[in-house]
Description:
Blueprint: H1 2-18, H2 24-37, E1 41-47, E2 51-53, E3 57-66, E4 78-84, E5 90-97, E6 102-108, E7 116-123, E8 136-143, E9 161-166, E10 171-172, E11 177-184, E12 193-198, E13 204-208, E14 215-220, E15 229-234, E16 239-243, E17 247-248, E18 252-258, E19 262-269, E20 276-283, E21 286-294, E22 299-305, E23 312-319, E24 325-333, E25 341-346, E26 350-351, E27 356-364, E28 373-381, H3 393-398, H4 410-415, H5 419-431, H6 439-443, E29 459-467, E30 478-483, E31 489-494, E32 500-505, E33 511-518, E34 525-529, H7 552-568, H8 570-573, E35 592-595, H9 605-612, E36 616-621, E37 624-629, E38 644-647, E39 650-651, E40 666-672, E41 676-678, E42 681-683, E43 686-691, E44 706-711, H10 727-730, E45 740-748, E46 754-760, E47 766-776, E48 781-790
Helix pairs in contact: 1-2
Amino acid sequence: MYSKIIFVCLILISMRSKGQIADPDSLTRAFNRYRTENLQEKIFLHTDRTSYVAGEILWFKVYNTDASFHKPLSISSVGYLEILDEGNKPVLQTKVSLSEGKGNGSLYLPVSLMSGNYRIRMYTRWMKNYSADLFFEKRITIINTLKEQKSDMKVPADKYDVQFFPEGGNMVAGIENRVAFRITDQTGKGVKFEGIVVDEAGNKIASFSPLRSGIGSFLLKPGPGIRYKSVIVFSDGRTLEQALPGTLERGYVMSLKDKKDSVIIDLSSNIPEGDAVYLFAHASNKIEFGSRIILDRGRKQVRFSKDELHEGITHFTLFDQNTKPVCERLYFNALRGSRLQLSSKSDSADYGSRKKVSVDIQAATIRSIPAIADLSLSVYRTDSLQQESSPSILSYLYLGSELRGNVEDPEYYVTNDNPEASIALDNLMLTHGWRRFKWEEVLSPQPLLSEFIPETSFHIVTARLFDKSNRLPVRDVPFSLSIAGRVNQFYSGTSTSDGKINFFTKDLVGNHPLILQTSTNNQGYSIEITNPFSDKFSSRLLPKLTLLDNTTGTLLVNSINMQAWNIYNRRRLNKFTESDVRSLPFYGSIKERYLLDDYVRFPTIEEVLREYVLSVGVRRREGKLVMQVYSGVVNESFFDERPLVLLDGVPILKSEKLFSFDPLKVKSIEVLPKRYFFGTEVYGGIILFKTYKNNLEGMELDANASVIDYEGLQQSREFYSPRYDTAEALKSRLPDFRNLLFWAPDVITDKAGNAKVSFYTSDRKGLYVVDIQGITSEGKAGSFRFSFNVK
């Protein structure tokens, strides 16, 4: 494999030096090499709602897939979720356990949060090697009804963003081409307007208006050396002028025509020596077409059957004879076999309060073949605050994750199949062009270096060692990480040239104090934990929150409901499942164990060890008491190597300090009487002291140790939904004003494609939506929504 990579790199270097068109096979090999060396993930996050009142709980389900086939991907075992404010400052962060490409969790939204639009994003450690634009993101709204709203939440005066996009990327003199446009307001939403294009003399050249979401296109044949500008008149009568992109005297143009069963790519050029080009097509990191093409008098037409193209977005890229990408065009092929067909209904359209609701779910492929699907389901009350255009898993995987910027109402493009929707979808391709890589990286002979390795099985805690005097990293120093708790954890390693070391922790769930210390007596070191969350941010727009007058009543009722629900159900809302941690500590099972309460209590640790701990000997060296472990070998006494001495799982480097520790605080002593190899260290056995409180009981650590509070993976909170299946429960006078009736992150359909869930309505009347998202093991994704009334 390595020799093949070198061979490809040499070919690419040779191509550049000779200035000739790339051999199609060599460019294909370069693309495949990049794809196989840079496996990418896509994450979709299903939240129970899109709008919340501060004080409520946000529930979520994580779907992690590979970027090419959208199959659930198990490369990462940890996901990082953040809620960012409009300044990209994290207000909430958590780490989520992932298994087999999925995970779920919750976040309590504290009442300290200010009202506003927030960005919720999700990514893995491996995804941090790439652009933050590849992280999953969507907008959520949080309203703090207990604090006075900001005065700037009123709708501000419109500010418009006007952009023009020549098809393929260029306007070339003398060649007619399509020019797309997108005009949005300060919230990122498209606006209505009428516009014209004029030349330098003021002559009208073209007129245009948006088809949908401020997006549309028009034809233009630019003349040589002529500058063009647009004159735009908005619905409120305001006028705006903006220049169009400049015109190239010489260049290439690529345009696309969408026919019934085929796609036609028109290639044009006015470069006399530019007849030899290379057309390359790929979709989801898979090659669909690659061929050297000779233009005939500056023109060539290439036809593709839609059946041969990947479902979703295909990127057509044109390279000139110097292997330089000069044009690119995106095309969306209709989703057929990639869809998961979901259907669902409740046993009635109308319910009273505190009544049982049964929901049947069916999952099938496009040919109505029953499918086993992994689904998440949310049932919530609709109001004026909930967003209607939140992306589904299907629209995100095939549309939102492949396009630049915000896509307004993404569901429209994947659910509608009519001529107008097809034109609107193609306009979207023209205005949101983007790829998940850079061509210079693909063609570079040097492979990309990944700073972050994936967390395939364990959460990685990264620490750095510095010299206190100059803050420079220190290399080749052994140091350890210890975690005291129900199951002791101990890790060790040696710092690299940049002072880093990765600790591959296991079962690190909840908050823990991490004890980091070097195994040297040098007190001039400083140890720090590296922030595992990303410090890179996407370029997506986050509009300011604007509250309309008709939301006041809704906010008041939601606030009262939230406070009542929290008061009466606080304990139920904060019930967490027991963490599934391993039963054995890092050193395995130890048979030699002494429960000190079973013996006569002695006043010193020395006497305890001498009197009844058989495998430990106490000796004096250089005037200090030391411990040794008996080897158990004939004609030998004790191990030459020093033992690993632990107190509640934390190594005590100066073990003589334990001789002054109060033995009445010690619950047990365990001894492993054999050599223990741990990393680069060799220990003459292990001696483990455990206190009653398992928290070191006031033992003073070495001066070079650092104790850092660290939040591990979040604990799993149990979703509480009251049941009214008895007369006593039905007559309960406790108020039930839930907006979120039900949340189920792990609904699995059976072999017949069926699943069923049930829950009870609350005391609050209104229209409730059932939102279902899901995916199969083959990567077929789908969603379904329906509603019912509570009267």
